[in-house]
Design goal:
109 residues, 2 strands, 4 helices, two-stranded antiparallel ribbon, alpha+beta
Length: 109
């Protein structure tokens, strides 16, 4: 983890304020020289990515951005489809069998 840099108030140094404004406007770092020697680098602060809140998703990109959630998931359960679809009585019978199996399992049978 990077160490915290000590802040320097530049409001009383007009020439430095002009350099800072230039770096801020261009987004490009500048070397500070003294007597032909590099003594410091003035850089714009790194851009931080916006913090995501808990449970938020990153923005969609590409094709996924253009499709709704329904379009993205359409057909994903297609191989479970029964043709022709079950009748209401078949659905009731399947539900009753599933409940009976779960009760028998919970009773140790």
């Amino acid at each position: 983890m990077a160490r915290e840099l000590a802040p320097v108030d530049i409001t009383t140094i007009p020439g430095l304020q002009q350099l800072v404004d230039d770096v801020r406007a261009t987004g490009k770092p500048r070397r500070l020289r003294h007597g032909g020697e590099d003594v410091a680098v003035l850089m714009p602060p790194a851009q931080r990515a916006p913090r995501r809140t808990r449970g938020s998703r990153p923005p969609a990109t590409g094709r996924a951005k253009a499709l709704s959630i329904a379009q993205q998931t359409a057909g994903m359960l297609q191989h479970y489809r029964k043709v022709p679809p079950p009748t209401p009585q078949e659905e009731k019978d399947a539900f009753a069998r599933a409940v009976a199996a779960q009760v028998a399992e919970s009773l140790g049978g």
